[in-house]
Structures are given as C-alpha cells and as structure tokens.
Design brief:
Layout lengths: L3 E3 L6 E6 L4 E6 L33 E9 L5 H5 L7 H8 L4 E2 L5 E2 L7 E4 L8 H6 L3 H4 L2 H11 L4 H13 L8 H18 L6 E3 L1 E4 L10 E5 L3 H4 L13 H15 L3 E6 L21 H10 L2 E6 L2 E2 L32 H8 L4 H15 L7 E4 L48 E6 L4 H9 L3 E4 L5 E7 L12 H8 E3 L3 E3 L6 E7 L7 E11 L5 E10 L34 E7 L9 E9 L2 E2 L1 H9 L10 E2 L2 E4 L2 E4 L3
Parallel strand pairs: 4-7, 7-8, 11-12, 12-14, 19-28
Antiparallel strand pairs: 1-2, 2-3, 4-15, 5-6, 9-10, 10-11, 12-13, 15-16, 16-27, 17-18, 17-20, 20-23, 21-22, 21-24, 24-27, 24-28, 25-26
Helix pairs in contact: 2-7, 9-10
Length: 643
C-alpha cells in the first residue's frame, strides 16, 4: 500500500498510513471518530470469469484474509436491535473496501479490503422482520407474522426475542415460518453471495448460523458451503428448530453432500459462553461420547472459532495459572443466557475446562487414545460475529456488535441492546488467515478442510508454521522457509507421524504492514503422559530486543509499552517487524502424543476503548481496560507416535 493521507468529514479522525515506517499515526480533529482508512484501488481487475480460469501456484504462497461469521438485517437479533439498513449487499461491498453509511450516519470503511466473506445470518426466523415490514403475504398471513406484527405495532421488541430464545433452548418452534417464505429468503441470501463472488479477486460463500443453545449453553455453529447456487438452492438451512443437537446437524450435512455432490462443513464457535458444554466427553443430551460421535465431529468440524467479539477462547487463567497471557479478553461472567457463574473457583474451573481451546486440544489426545479418533483435531480461526453488517476488527476502526455498540460517546458505558452485556467488554476481534493457492471458493475451502488456517484478533500478521524432522536455521530464512516447509515437512493443521526423534519446526511471523511491531513468538505444547495426565508448556522461541529466557521460569521480561493514554497513540520504537526461527522440542518423548501451536503477541497498543475515550472526550469506568496486546494463533501441528 502506498503512503497516503486521507481526510474525511469533520466527524472523523485523520488516519495517516505510513507503511514504510511500520506504524499508524492518528491525529484527532475537532469532533473525532475513526471512520475509514486509506482505500485500496477500487478497480476490479485481477478477477476471472470463473474459478477454472484462475491460475494456481505450486503450493500456497499467499495468505488470504476474511470473515466467515457476519450478520446482517436478515438476522432476527440484528434487526430487532436496530439494524434496519445494512444487508448482505452492503456487507460484501464493505468487505471489498467500499465506504458504507453506518447507522450513526457516519461513513465506515476498512483500511484494507478483505479477500473473502460469508454472511452467516441465523437460520432461525431468517428475514421474518423484513417480511413483516414489506408486507410479504408468505409471512404476514401466518400466526407467527400476525403475532410479531402486533407486538411491533405495540412497540414490544422483547416479546419476539423471548419467543426466539425459547425455541432455541428447547429445539422447536411452535410457529416456524412456512417453507415458501424460507425458500424465498434463502434464495435472496444465496443470490447476494453469487453477485459478489469474483474468482481471483474476492470470494463469497453461502452459509448461515445454526443457533442451538440447549439449557442456555452456546452450541452455535456456522455452516459453510463450498458450492454455488446450483447446489445450495437445493436445500434449506437447518435450524435449531429442526434439531438442537450437533449430531442432527451433521446428519443434515451428510444428506446434503449425498444429494447434491457438494461439500459443506460446520464451525463451532464461542465456547467460552457454552455453560461448559462445548468440549469434554458428554453430548448436549447428556449421553457420553461414543465412536460414532467422535468420528462425526472430526469429519464435519475441521475448524474452530477461538476468538471473536464475545471474547477470546484460547486459555483461561484458572486453567493455565502460570501463563501470564492467558487472561486475554476473557468473557467468563455468564453463559449465553446471562446465567451467572458459580462463586466457587473449583466449580468454575470445571466449567471452563470444557470451554477453552487449549483444554480441548489436550482432551482430544485422551479421546484419541480412547476411540482412535481425535474429535478436537481442529484448525483455529477468528471471526467478527458482528451484527451490523460491518466486518471490522481493528481497534482504531471498531464498529461493535449491534447498532447500539457502534461508535458513540455513550457506548463505553452502555449495554448491548440496552439489556445484554456491557459494551466495553466487546473484543475487537477477529479474522481468519488462510493459506491457499488462489482466492477462489474451491481453493479456500480446501485450505479450510486441511486446516491450513490461523486466527488473529484483528491485525493481519503473516504467520508460517511447518513441522518436520531435519529443518535447520538455514531453512528459517524468509526466502527459503516455505519451500523447505512444504518440501520436507507439513504445514499448520497437519499431523506428524513419529520417527523416533524430536521434530523441529520452522516459524516465521511478520507484523501487519499497518500495525504494531511484534513482542514475541511462543510455542504452546500440550501432551498426554502415559499415566493419562494432560499437561502443557509454553516456550519462548523468538522475541524482540536483548531479553533472555530465565532458565528457572522459562519466561522473559515484559517488553514495555509506548502507549500514550492521553492521545491514544503508540510507536514502534520497541519490538520487531518480523521474527523467524527453527526450533526443536527440548523435552520430546517419542512415545507421547502431543500438539504444538504458535502464539504471536504484539507490543502493547491502544484498545478500542481508549480510542473512544480520546475521540469523544469521555472518561471510561475504572474497570475498563485501555491497552491491549493483540495476537495471532496458528492451527496446531499434532505429533502422533508411529512408524
């Protein structure tokens, strides 16, 4: 991206993009609000008539950035909480870098466009409010339409939401929309994805969110189809009213593939508010896992959404007390139905053990030993889960979750929807980075299936991670790393079979060109002892400055901070633009199964709450965090003893 200076209206902050200096400088104007950055070239060159015409590289040479979990006004909660103007077309245009008018009346725009997007509106009651508003006879002449229209006329927005929540909890809807209406709405969503799909330039996927929450525990999944409308329009979204057990959803996906010859997958998300039901070894109906269940989960859920607007699900300080970076954007006060957690720490620890990714990866090793299949052998991604139609996850350009959490002077001290969680708890997160041979549905979906993806909390950090047996520091050169990794090893998301010697790993992390320098790169290892004990360890493998690893604790000193709390600025005078290394496990035992993943941590930067405080001249409540250290998480590489 070239150097550029972009001045918007008098309700803006001037963003000055200086990639050559490796930082953003933000200068406040009179009535400040970050709206947009420097746009990419709006020309549509670089895309092809069909995916068949897109040239493919020999191996995945490029990382593509996107969001697979975004809601528009077609979602019942998005519409009910104020989104009356931003639908799928606006969402795709915004993701492609175009300016869009937000509900505040201000112009929102990404500082750099995304490469792919999926609008994943809720399968439950999709478009019902829109149908009532447009007087669609397929819905207004039904019991559901008449009841909700009467509530709306009376100014009651809580009644319809209570009905929706009840149906999601018990897995059935007494007044489900008729099939004709659902087909019309699904066709509109699929056609929007088709209109905006540009092979080689910008990729869209058809999909939706299955919003099951039995007993108030989040079991939500995002469903993504590889296919175009010739196949996706042969089906209808499977909703929680059709079945609220993931096994029922997987059966539906199996039926879809058998009937159409297409491909689909499910992505579980937001386990941190699942009431302890996302992981573990008990199904949502109380039955213990069996062979069929673990095989099906491994088959249909190759990815997991570990970071998004409702918090970060990597690790929890009660589960990983020696990890000083475990308490990052932690949402642990309630489940999705706002039920408070128990006061007793041991009881909370039992719940969290089945909600956080690192624990799930360890549990997967035990389940692999028990059933011969690891249901938690998933890749890691980030998403926004925004319900505004705006896929933003940059702290200096964060547009919230619902309309009431779009940028205003009040949002720091108000609640989402006026009655849900505190807005300040929202996390400006996240995106998925996918290594693929081209920006097409086929190539990206293949990357998702082989788990060659990673999660970030927003920054577009470039991250490579390979495992093998004979890598050296020479291979860690940026010019040779990828070629060596693919030629003599496996990429993130893969499995290494044992050779009787310690594996070694190639790791390369490069800062977001428009973002902060890097503090450190860590390897997170988990393993299962012969006794059955599940353990973890964190290794500091590359870091900025002249710090050294303490041999007793295995830790390094904090890097410090350049954040100015008075004007929400920082500098890249600390940290490094890139960190590269070849690393071998010093504690390796060839008989013990293990996993390894990378955590890249940036230097401290202003959190969106600090940007808001400066823009609007407000004083945040004392409990509100103002500084953050954003990060990226690779998909794991698993070591499996064997020949």
């Amino acid at each position: 991206m070239p150097d550029c200076h972009r001045t918007l209206s008098d309700r803006t902050i001037l963003r000055i993009c200086l990639p050559n200096l490796g930082k953003r400088v933000l200068a406040a104007l009179a009535v400040p609000l970050v709206l947009a950055g420097c746009s990419a070239d709006p020309a549509d060159d670089g895309h092809y008539a069909s995916a068949d015409d897109v040239p493919l590289t020999d191996y995945p040479e490029q990382v593509f950035w996107g969001d697979l979990h975004l809601h528009t006004l077609y979602s019942f909660d998005s519409y009910n909480f104020g989104n009356k103007s931003l639908g799928p077309d606006e969402a795709y245009r915004f993701a492609k870098g175009e300016p869009i008018k937000a509900h505040t009346g201000d112009i929102a725009q990404l500082s750099a466009p995304l490469d792919f997007l999926m609008v994943s509106d809720h399968a439950e009651y999709t478009g019902v409010f829109l149908g009532i508003e447009s007087d669609n006879p397929d819905i207004v002449d039904t019991a559901l339409g008449r009841a909700w229209a009467a509530m709306e006329d009376a100014g009651d927005t809580v009644g319809p939401m209570n009905e929706v929540v009840a149906s999601l909890r018990d897995g059935k809807a007494e007044r489900d929309p008729p099939e004709a209406f659902k087909r019309t709405i699904w066709s509109e969503l699929v056609e929007a994805a088709e209109r905006h799909n540009q092979p080689g330039k910008f990729t869209t996927f058809a999909g939706y969110e299955w919003t099951s929450m039995p007993n108030g525990g989040n079991q939500h999944r995002v469903i993504i189809y590889k296919d175009g409308k010739d196949k996706t329009l042969q089906t209808l979204p499977f909703s929680a009213a059709d079945g609220n057990n993931p096994s029922q959803l997987w059966d539906y996906l199996q039926s879809y593939e058998e009937a159409t010859g297409g491909e689909a997958m499910a992505i579980a998300h937001n386990g941190n508010i699942s009431n302890g039901n996302m992981f573990g070894d008990i199904q949502v109906d109380g039955k213990p896992f069996d062979k069929d269940y673990v095989v099906a989960r491994a088959r249909w859920e190759p990815l997991y959404e570990m970071t998004q607007v409702k918090g970060d699900s990597e690790a929890h300080p009660l589960l990983s007390p020696t990890d000083e970076f475990a308490d990052f954007e932690t949402w642990d006060q309630t489940n999705i139905s706002m039920k408070e957690r128990p006061d007793d720490a041991d009881e909370r620890r039992k719940i969290y053990a089945n909600e956080y990714v690192r624990e799930a990866l360890k549990q997967g090793l035990e389940l692999q030993d028990r059933f011969g299949t690891n249901p938690y052998q998933f890749g890691l991604i980030g998403s926004t889960d925004s319900h505004t139609g705006l896929a933003t996850s940059d702290d200096d350009n964060f547009w919230g979750k619902f309309v009431e959490s779009e940028p205003t002077p009040e949002r720091i001290s108000s609640k989402m929807g006026g009655r849900l969680w505190d807005n300040w708890r929202l996390t400006s997160s996240g995106y998925i980075g996918a290594w693929a041979r081209a920006n097409t549905r086929e190539e990206l979906f293949a990357a998702f299936k082989r788990r060659e993806v990673y999660a970030t909390t927003g920054p577009r950090i470039r991250l490579r991670f390979f495992g093998g047996w004979d890598f050296s520091n020479t291979d860690a050169s940026i010019d040779t790393l990828a070629e060596a990794g693919y030629d003599r090893g496996v990429p993130m998301g893969s499995v290494l079979s044992g050779k009787g010697k310690a594996p070694n790993f190639l790791i390369h992390a490069m800062k977001d060109p428009n973002g902060a320098h890097l503090d450190r790169v860590q390897v997170i290892k988990g393993w299962r002892e012969p006794s059955g004990e599940l353990r973890e360890k964190i290794y500091e493998v590359a870091f900025a400055g002249s710090r050294t690893v303490d041999p007793a604790s295995g830790k390094i000193e904090p890097i410090g901070s350049t954040v100015n709390l008075q004007d929400a600025t920082y500098t890249n005078h600390i940290g490094e633009a890139q960190l590269t290394t070849a690393w071998q496990d010093p504690d390796f035992d060839p008989a013990i199964p293990a996993f390894y993943y990378i955590r890249v941590i940036e230097i401290p930067t202003p959190r969106w709450t600090l940007y808001d405080a400066v823009r609007f001249g407000v004083t945040p409540p004392s409990e509100v965090p103002l500084v953050t250290q954003e990060r990226a998480y690779s998909s794991p590489i698993w070591y499996q003893p064997g020949d």
